[in-house]
Every structure is written in C-alpha cells, then in structure tokens.
Amino acid sequence: MDRAQLIDSLTQIKNELIKVEKTNDSRFYLVCESQNACKISNFIFETLGCRFVIATAIDSEQYYEVLYHFSHDQTGTVLTVKALIRDRENPSVESLGQFIPGVLWIEREMHDLMGIEFRNHPDMRRLILADDWPEGVYPLRKKPKNEKDS
Amino acid sequence: MALSAKPIKKSPWVFHVNTGACNNCDIEIVALLTPRFDVERFGIKLVGSPRHADALLVTGGVTAQAAPRLREVYRQTPKPCVVFAIGACACDKGIFTNGYHMVGPVDKIIKEIDPNAIIAYVPGCPPKPEAIISGVVKALSIL
Amino acid sequence: MKKTVNINKPVLPVGPFHPLQEEMEFFQLTVDGETVTDIDVRISYNHRGMEGIAETLQFDQVPYLVSRICGICSASHPLAYVQAVEEFAGITPPDRALYVRTIINELERIHSHILWAGLAGHFIGYDTVFMWAWKYREPVLDLLEEITGNRNNYGNVKVGGCREDIPDELKPKIIAEMDKLEKKVEMLTKAVLDDPVLHARLKGVGILTKEDAIRYCVTGPTARASGVAIDVRRDDPYAAYGQLDWNVIAQPEGDVFAKAVVRLLETLESAKMIKEAVVKLPKGPIAVEVREIPAGEGCGRAEAPRGETFHYVRSDGGNRPVRHKMRAPSFVNVPSFKASCLGGNISDVTITLAAVDPCYSCTERLAVVNDRTGKVLHDYESLLKLSREKTEKIRKELL
Q1: Where are the domains positioned within chain B?
Q2: How many whole angstroms separate alpha carbon C11 and alpha carbon C380?
C-alpha cells in the first residue's frame, strides 16, 4: 500500500490513540496510553505488515515513555508508537513478545537500563548489565535535579 | 612498509583479549597476520590459549563484565609476560571514561592482582598495524 | 542419544577469547547427539553505556562517540545519527556532502564484506581465502585513509555535512582502484559459485526462512539472503543513493551460501556506485553552518554493511541530546541465529554464526562467560576443527 493508504488505515485504531504527530512526510508518532500499546503495535505489525525496528525507553519526568519504532519498508515510512506510562512508581507495559520474537531482547534491555517491567515477557533475564551490577540501579533513569552536574 | 633489522629478542606468542572494544583494534590485530603485515615472519604468533602466550594484546577499556575474565586470563598466562594495552580505550578508557559500565583501564585491572605487572601501551584509535608492530618490537627490545 | 552431564542439559559453550572471533560473546548450545536443540546468547561484555555517555556530550561531539560503536560500521552510525538531527533541525547538507557521505559508506561496505569473506573462509578451512581477502581489502583502507585520515573511525560526518572533502586529484585513483577490485571480487565470486565443495558445504546450511526473517525483524544481507528484499538505501533514500543507478541484491534460499553470494554481489554493486558517485560528484561546499539545534525528535537510518542502523534522537533545545537511542543491525540479526541454527549440526555452528556477520560490538553484547560448572563438551577450538573437518570430508567425497 502507498503512504496515503498507510496513514489512512490508522483510523482503524483511532480509538486507542491520543493523537498522531507528524514531523515530516515519512515520520509519524502515534501517541497512546501504555495499556493500548500492545493492541496498536499488533495492528501495525500484523495488519499493516510493518517491520519492528527497535524500542526506546525514555524517562520524561512526568511519565516514562516507551517508543516502539516500526518501518513500513515499501514506502520508507517510520511509524513510532509512543506509549506513555504514567505510573512512575511501578512502570510496566505488556510485552509484545508473544507476536514479535524480534522484540524480546530490547525489552530485556529496557528493563535492565530503565527498570520498566514488561508483563508476560517469556524470558525476563538480565541482558546487558554485568552479573554483579546491583539490582534496582537503572543507569538511564534521570538523576534528580539536585544531583545533576551543571 | 619495511622494518629495520632490529633484533627481536624473542619470538613472542601473543594471546588477544577483547575486554569490551569496538572491534577496530581487534581487526587491526588480526590484520597483522595478513600478507601486508605478516607478523609471522618475525615469529610473532597469535595463539588460541593464554597458557601458551608470552604476551597479551588487550583491547577495550574493560567493561564491568569483562574485568573478572581479564584477571582470569592474566592469571592463566605463564609469567613473565607482557601485557600490551592496545588502543586508546585499553590505555586510558578513551572516549568511554564516563561510561557507567566501564571499570578499566587495563592497567588498573591487571595491577589489582599483580602490582608488578609489565604493561606496555600502544595508543591510537585504532593504532595502525604498523604502530602495533612497532610498539611490540620496541617494548620487547627494552625488556 | 542424549549425553548426560553434571547439569541438566548438555551444553556447549562457544566462544572464549579466540583471535579470529574478535568479539566476546557467549553462546550456549544445547545438543542432542550432534544436533543443536537450543541456543542461548549471553551478551554484556561489550556494554559500554554509549547511550548514557551520549547524554553527556554535545551534539557535535556525538559522531565521534557513535563511530566507535563498531569498527566496521563506523561510517554508518554517525551518518544515521546526523541524519536524525538534521531531520528535526531542518538542516539540509549540500549536495557534495551527500555524495561524499555515499562514497565513504560504500567504501566501508566493501571493506566490511571482504573482511567477512575472509573470516568465513577461515571458519570452513579456506585459509587462503582469508589471506587473499584481507590482502585485497588493504587498498580500500588506503583510500579511506587518504580521504579521511584514518583506516577506521573516519570522523568524517558532522551535522550539516562532512568534515573532509574528496580532493579532485584523488578521483582517478578511486576509479582505478575500484576497477582493480571489481576484477578480484569477480574472480572470487566465480570461484565460490563454481566450487562444488563450497556448494556441498554451504548450501542448505544455517537456513533462515523468510517467515523467521520477518518474525525476528532481521535486516541487511541476513534478510536479503532469505528473500526479504529490504534495503534502507532504496526504501528510505538518504545521502545520494536516490541519484545513483544500482540494484538491491537478494536471494531466496536463506542459507549460508546465499548470504555469501549476496555479500559478494553487493561488493560489486558498491564498486559500481562509487565510480558513478565519483564521476557525478557535484562542486560546492561540503557543509552548511549549524548554529543551534532546536527542540524536536528525529529518526535517522543508514544501511550499514550488516543491515539497518537506526538512531533516534530527542532534543529539548539545549546543547546535548536528551535521549539518544542507537540500534545496530546485529541487535536483531544475532537473535535470529537461534532460528537458523536449531536442528543443525554442531559442525555448522561456527559458519552459521559467521554468516549472520555479527558485529558484536554493535549489539554491545558480546560476552564470553566461562563460569559454567557443567562438563565442557566442545570449546571454540574444537567447534572450528569440526567445521573444517566437515569441509575436508566433503572435498574427499567429491573429488
């Protein structure tokens, strides 16, 4: 399908989206609440046939974000599902691992580095930090402002 | 490239250890075996086990996961041996100084178990194969 | 017949430090007899905390960091990064810069693929191929050194363009070297395609099916050799790729042989592209001035020799990235090793792994863990030996 059809088909999940941001003709960000991320990602992967590229976890102070980046190779479009996790005490989101094996490693990495829980992940073991790295220390979380270097 | 006929006191067998390097230094080390540089003509040989090595070629700034393994390899290498820190990361962590997962550089980790370790530094990012050969030859000729 | 050992499952650790597998990585293979039934990959040796370091650097310092993600993709990572920043900052580099970027990246692809061909040859016992390939790789590195000042880690890309230009006097030399290289690679490709021992040794080995290639989201030659014909240079054109005449190389079989063919043919394609780009190199500056980076977020990608590198950068208008995600192709390609190795013979493990061309440092995950308490059935040396013995056996049967 061409790009216009691709963007048009997003109306099928419009109830799950907060908004769609576009930074240019080939980069779209689909903002949603974390509980809808799995359904939207499934739609993009299975129905639209996009390829999962990678996921980015971000500590945005008011919430955590998990960005799932998908590529629609036929048109060179990048669709990024931006899931907002508002519970900062126990950030968690449903794992996409049941339908995308390619996501399993990055979810383990995001767990190691940002401390986000991926519910129902089949193999949540430490991936990227050393065996003796202390539990509960998440290196990519932002330090509190009074600890920051200038 | 021509090296002068500087005598090499011994033909060192070297074991290569990667402690978290980007691969550049490692590839330049492997390039030493290839026809343009051909270190085997000097008797320098890459061996498959530290137990057969006279020298260690260590790359990388030593990640937290690699540090215990580096110490283990050093212990297994018969003494006396020379530890060559190849590349900016191995010499002084280089661009990874601020990395939360970096515990090196190489001399710090080795000296934790052997304060008298013989360590030679070949800086570069990566050092060219000529520089590595020159560093190895220089170090061996003064030892 | 299952072997019984001290632990629950017989496990072969692959990959202590070995000179020809430069990265540290620990693959644990579970076997039933000689058949691989499960694989686990442990990675953490190479985790240097790049994304954390990037947040402490300024935007113009980051290319120097990311070119050290991996030595053989060291042009692709900074290119993907600067493209991400240029995207949200609304910066368009001059045309000459786009061509210079293309030429450097294709030179890198060539030296990476030839390096791979040499290593693959070594794994199956063709050491002459290893020596030959790495010898013919050197002139390509010489060209890169003449242009950028370094054989690796070029440091040539910056936000807004390039740092070093290709001098006009060098253009005929680049074309002459590409002509020479094409002849050599054509010779090697023909030798591979005509060799019955290589056919028997590599065909049907380490197959990654198209379905698995899609499920594991692989990219690069690993995908293209399984019939998934994706290539960022064509799908989401960047630099000067949209203006050159070239083909995406794909094969349907998904085995090691297909991966070798894809890489060799891509090398020839790259040589062709370089010659065309050098001839068409537009006059003009190689960079625009960049004063500040506004707030925003961008996704930049480039087709590295191993596949798609993807960088996501977010800025809040300050001097440093707020978040920088770096994804190397091996991050998705290495896990697919599980699908291509299961059910295979242990003598094929080393070549199947090599065929994925894992740039372990890209994945920041190569770790070798030797603290197993179970019985070691094979170490890396003996797996390599098994691989070469299989080649020898095939040669004796055929000739």
Answers
A1: 13-132
A2: 13
Pick the closest to residue B101 from B62, B70, B59, B58 (CA basis).
B62
Six-digit token string for A84:
């907002």
Task: Indicate the Cα dihedral angle A128, A129, A132, A135, nearest 10°.
Answer: -110
Taking only the tens place, the pLDDT of each residue in B76-98 is 999 888 999 999 999 999 889 88
Cβ separation B18–C49 shorter than 8 A: no
Task: Report the length, in residues, of chain B.
Answer: 143
Whole-number Å distance between alpha carbons of A81 and A68: 5
Give the ranges where C247-379 is alpha helix by DSSP (H). 256-280, 330-333, 337-341, 349-355, 360-363
| Measured distance between the N- and C-terminal CA atoms of chain A, rounded to whole angstroms | 49
Secondary structure of residue C341 in the 3-state scheme: helix
Query: Is beta strand A92-94 parallel, antiparallel or unpaired with respect to A117-119?
Result: parallel
The rounded distance, in Å, linking the Cα atoms of C202 and C204 is 6
Q: How many CB atoms lie within 10 A of CB B13?
A: 16
CB nearest to B36's CB, from C19, C135, C153: C135
Identify the CATH class of B13-132: alpha beta
Q: Considering only CA atoms, which of C238, C325, C321 is closest in space to residue C61?
A: C321
Percent of chain C with pLDDT over 70: 87
User: Per the structure block, which two tokens stand in for C69?
Assistant: 């993600």
Chain B contact set for A114 (CB, 8 A): none
Three-state secondary-structure class, residue C11: strand
Q: Give dist(CA B119, CA B108) in Å, integer.
A: 10
C-alpha pair distances (Å), C348 with each of C173, C190, C202, C256? 41, 23, 9, 10
Interface residues on A facing B, Cβ-Cβ cutoff 8 A: 129-133, 139
Chains contacting B (3 or more CB pairs within 8 Å): A, C
Largest CA-CA distance found in chain B, in angstroms, rounded:
45
B101 and A129: CB-CB below 8 Å? Answer: yes
Count CA within 13 A, CB hemisphere, residue A44: 32
Output b/e per residue, B90-124; b: 16+ Cβ within 10 A: bbbbbbbeebbbbbbbbbebbeeeeeebebbbbbb
What's the predicted TM-score (pTM) here? Answer: 0.91
Query: Which is it for strands C35-42 and A92-94: parallel, antiparallel or unpaired?
Result: unpaired
**Under 8 Å between Cβ of C79 and C239:** yes
Question: Which domains does chain A show, CATH number per domain?
Answer: 3-143 (3.30.460.80)
Q: Under CATH, domain C50-331 is a member of which superfamily?
A: Cytochrome-c3 Hydrogenase, chain B (1.10.645.10)
Collapse the DSSP code of C107 into the 3-class scheme (helix H, G, I; strand E, B; otherwise coil) and give the result. helix
Interface-testing mutation among A3, A21, A51, with chain C (most C C-beta atoms within 10 A) = A51
Digit-by-digit pLDDT tens for chain A (150 residues) are 999 999 999 999 999 999 999 999 999 999 999 999 999 999 999 999 999 999 999 999 899 999 999 999 999 999 999 999 999 999 999 999 999 999 999 999 999 999 999 999 999 999 888 888 999 999 999 987 665 544
Residue C157, beta-bridge partner list:
C162
Residue B95 CA: distances (Å) to CA of A91, C326, C351: 32, 17, 33
Helix (H) or strand (E) holding C27: strand C26-32
Cis omega (within 30 of 0) for bond into B50: no
Q: Where are the domains of chain C?
A: 11-46+332-398, 50-331
Which tokens is C188 given?
């090697």
Residues of chain B neighbouring A139 (CB-CB closer than 8 A)? 100-101
CB atoms within 10 A of CB C177: 19
Helix and strand totals (H; E) in chain A: 3, 7
